Structure prediction request, 361 residues.
Amino acid sequence: MSQRVRGVIAREKGKPVEVTTIVVPDPGPGEAVVKVQACGVCHTDLHYREGGINDEFPFLLGHEAAGVVESVGDGVTDVAPGDFVVLNWRAVCGNCRACNKGKPWYCFATHNAKQRMTLEDGTELSPALGIGAFVEKTLVHAGQCTKVDPSARAAAVGLLGCGVMAGLGAAINTGGVTRGDSVAVIGCGGVGDGAVAGAALAGATTIIAIDTDDRKLEWARGFGATHTINARETDVVKAVQDLTGGFGADVVVEAVGRPETYRQAFYARDLAGTVVLVGVPTPEMTIELPLLDVFGRGGALKSSWYGDCLPSRDFPMLVELYKQGRLDLDAFVTEEIALDEVEQAFGKMHTGDVLRSVVIF
Ligand SMILES: NC(=O)c1ccc[n+]([C@@H]2O[C@H](COP(=O)([O-])OP(=O)(O)OC[C@H]3O[C@@H](n4cnc5c(N)ncnc54)[C@H](O)[C@@H]3O)[C@@H](O)[C@H]2O)c1
Ligand SMILES: [Zn+2]
Ligand SMILES: [Zn+2]
Prediction:
C-alpha cells in the first residue's frame, strides 16, 4: 500500500521547482510516515536546486519541519501515531566510530528511511537531507522524529529541524560561546540569527551582527545583537576589532559560506579565538591564507554540521526555552506560505525580504 500526496520537487539543475504528486510508501521496519504541518524554506534547499550539493535529481525538497506521526513500521518504539515531532537529519546510529567515542553528534552513519518516495512513474526521489518535507506526508526513519511539547507552534519549532539549530549550535556547541564572550556573526539569515540567539542565550556580552542588508541587521538586534555592521559600507575586520578593544572577537561564526566572508572571519577573531564555518560553500570555492597566520593566530578553525546538535537532547530543551519566552522562534517566521509558493520564497531569500518563509499544510 502507498499514498499519493502533493509535494515540491527540483526536477533539473537550476530549473524552477514544481508541485507534483508524490507516492509515499507505508512505513517499513524502523520507519515512520509523518503528516507534515509546517516546513521552513532553508538556503540549503536552494543549494540542492542549484546542483550545489550533488547531482542526484530529482530532489524532494524541504527539511525544516514539524508534524504528527501518522503510522510507524515494525520495531518502532520511540514514537507512536499521534506524537508531535520535529524532524531531524541526525538519527544517530549508536554504533559508528563517533558514537562509540561518546560523540554521537558527529555520527557518521545516521539513519534515513530505507524505502524511497517516488514520482507516479516510479522515479525515485532524493529527499533533501534525507528528509524531504515540502510534502503533505513524508516517509522518514523513526529516529528522525524527535518528540517535543505538542502545544508548541509547528511553524516555529519546525525551524529547529535545520537552520536555527545549525546556527544556535554553531555558537554554543561548536564555538563553545559562554558568559562574557565577544561573538561576531557574519551573515544574518535564519542560520546567522540562530547563532546570534544562541550567543545571547549563552551569555555573550558583545554580539556583533554583520550583513550586507540593513533589514537583516535590524532583525538581528531583535535576537540579541548588541552591535551591527553593514559589510557593504564598512571594513568588517576593522569594525569588529574596534568593537572589541582592538583585538577581535572570541568566536566568529561564518554563516554565509563564501571565501571572502571566511577570510573576514579568520581575521576578525582575537588571537587564540575560534572561527566556526556553518555556511555551506559550493564545490568550486577555494581559499588561500598565509600559513604563518594560521599558525601564529592560534586558536581553532572549526566547521559545524547541524550545530553539532543531538536532536534528542537539544530539541525538547530549546522548545522548552521557546515556551518560557527565552528563545523567540516566532520571530524567525517572516511569513507563512502555501506549498506552491516555494519558488517565490527562493526569490524573497535572494532579495532579503524574509528570514524564513514557512510552508503551512
Ligand atoms: N552547516 C549546517 O549544518 C547548515 C544548516 C543549514 C544551513 N546552512 C547554510 O548556512 C548558510 C546560511 O543559510 P540561511 O538559510 O541563513 O541563508 P539566508 O540566505 O537566509 O542568509 C544568508 C545571509 O547572508 C547575508 N550575506 C550574503 N553575502 C554576505 C556578505 N558578503 N557579507 C555579509 N553577509 C552576507 C545575506 O544578506 C543573508 O542575510 C547557507 O550556506 C546554508 O546552506 C548550513
Ligand atoms: Zn553513529
Ligand atoms: Zn536547512
